[in-house]
Structures are given as C-alpha cells and as structure tokens.
Design brief:
Oligomer: single chain
CATH topology: TIM Barrel
CATH class: Alpha Beta
Bound molecules: zinc ion
Strand content: 5-15%
Structural class: alpha/beta
Radius of gyration: 18 Å
CATH superfamily: Metal-dependent hydrolases
CATH architecture: Alpha-Beta Barrel
Number of strands: 8
Shape: globular
Order of helices and strands: EHHEHEHEHEHEHEHEHHH
Strand order of the largest sheet: 1-2-3-4-5-6-7-8
C-alpha cells in the first residue's frame, strides 16, 4: 500500500509522526511519498526520510508561493529569487540521491484570479518560470514530476499552460504524475497521451465530486495512483465523524471506494498501484 502524495512535515502530522507511520504500517502500508513545497520543507522531508525508511521525499517549489492569500505565499518573489532557489534545488538534488521526484510544483491560477490584471499576469509569468525550472531539473536528474495544476472552473488556462511547458521542455520526455487532478476531461486525455499518471485522493468520496469521479472513470488502472494529500482532504466517512486531520492510513477508504468504482477487488487494485508506483518512482514494486 503506497500513499503517492502527502505532507508529513506539516505540524498536524510531524508532531505525531511515529504513530502516523505505525498506523499506516499496521494496515499494510509500505511507502509514503512526502512532497516538499518550499525551501524549508525540502530540508524537513530529507530529515524525515533519514529516520523513517517508509518515507520517500520529493523536493519542489510550489506555485502557491506566488498566490497571495495562500499559507505558502512568499511576498517579494521575483526572477532573482526563482533563479537562486532553483540553483539551491539543483544542489540539493545532487547531494541527496534518496530524493525520488521533483515536486510539488506546477501552476495555480485559482486564487490569483482575484488580483489586479497587471499583477495577475506578473504572478502567472513567475509561476511559469518556476515550473519550467522544475521541469528542467526533473529532466536533468531523470526524476518524475509531482504536478499540482489548478484553475478556476470553466477557465482552463493553467492546464493549457502546464501541458505547453511539459511538451516544450526536453521534447516532452519528462514523466511523472498530476496529483489530485480536478481539471477538464479534454486535458486529461492530453495528460494521459503524454504518458503521465494521475492520482486521486479523498475528494472522490465526497458527495459533490461527480466531476472528479467522472475523471477517475476516464483514467485506466495502469495510469492511476492513489494518495491522501494528508493532512488535507479527510475521506468522506471519517470527515462525517468529525475527523479533521487526514493521515496516510486513511487511504484505505479511498482505495475501497476506487476499487468498487472500477469493479476490481481491492487486492488487485493495490497490486496495480504498486506496479504503477514502481514505474513512476522506481520503488514499491
Ligand atoms: Zn499536496
């Protein structure tokens, strides 16, 4: 059982890490992909991987660093900041071969839409620079990308721009997966066409998520990954019981839901998820 995307360094989970890992292991869990989003969490995922062999770190710079109002937002990021931090990320990737992917990175135009037009365009452009730099590093180190891509409903510019950057850089031969994909069906076909995997989490269990379930139906088992995005997105039945913090063991509820939806036994689903994780990250087979 592999959780393809979580943020174990956030205090909700980091403060109780041994128990979080133990509960995941007792349910049959083997690996958790722990994705950093900014310079400080990159250090944390590396140190958590040192103490817990189940944890596989990925290192990236998240587009929400450039989204005013988000927790990650970092005022004053400009091209110099981006160059400096991409350089630092390159040094980190050469120094720590245990890093299994580049990300979380990508484009997030969702909240930026509320900014003034000139500021919005500036932030979009910086996000594209940051993502392009991460794609280049993934190509250079032959690592998969962990991609976050989100846009306002009905406006698919972020997906279009992300696909354009992926195709342009390195002739489109960088691979990886789109995590928590909630975009449009037409771009999903392009994503699969480019050879990327797509991962789903507790959102598929939510009552109002028919659009995400339609996307899940369109992704073949051979291209699917399961994740929690812990500590976020507690699956439906646990959320209904008042559980606020998502952790990796909760992936069992999402897996049961997905197995039923896909009409396969859970054991068969997990066997395929292991093969897929092995193909993407070179681990877990
Ligand atoms: Zn995430």
């Amino acid at each position: 059982m592999i959780d393809a995307h979580a943020h174990l360094y956030l205090p909700e989970l980091a403060d109780d890490l041994d128990s979080v890992i133990e509960r995941f292991r007792s349910a049959g869990g083997t690996h958790i992909i722990n994705s950093a989003t900014d310079p400080s969490s990159i250090c944390e995922v590396i140190s958590q991987a040192h103490t817990h062999p189940e944890i596989l770190p990925t290192a990236g710079l998240h587009p929400e660093l450039l989204v005013p109002g988000c927790d990650l937002y970092c005022r004053g990021i400009d091209e110099v900041w981006i160059e400096t931090h991409l350089g630092q990320l390159r040094r980190t990737l050469s120094k720590y071969p245990q890093i299994v992917g580049v990300g979380e990175c990508g484009l997030d135009y969702y909240w930026v839409k509320h900014e003034r037009i000139s500021e919005r365009e500036r932030l979009f452009e910086l996000q594209r620079k940051l993502f392009a730099g991460c794609i280049e590093l993934a190509a250079e180190f032959d690592l998969p990308l962990v991609i976050h891509c989100r846009d306002e409903h009905g406006d698919k510019q972020a997906e279009a721009d992300a696909l354009k950057l992926l195709v342009e850089s390195n002739g489109g031969c960088v691979k990886g997966f789109f995590h928590s994909y909630t975009g449009s069906r037409s771009y999903l076909d392009d994503i699969l066409g480019l050879g990327f995997f797509v991962s789903f989490n507790g959102i598929v269990t939510y009552k109002n998520a028919d659009n995400v379930r339609d996307l899940l139906d369109a992704v073949p088992l051979e291209r699917l990954l399961l994740e929690t995005d812990a500590p976020f997105l507690v699956p439906n039945s646990l959320r209904a019981q008042g559980v606020k913090v998502c952790e990796s063991v909760f992936i069992t509820e999402t897996a049961e839901f997905v197995a039923k939806r896909k009409g396969v036994p859970v054991t068969r689903l997990w066997k395929q998820m292991h093969e897929n994780a092995c193909e993407v990250f070179g681990v877990g087979g």
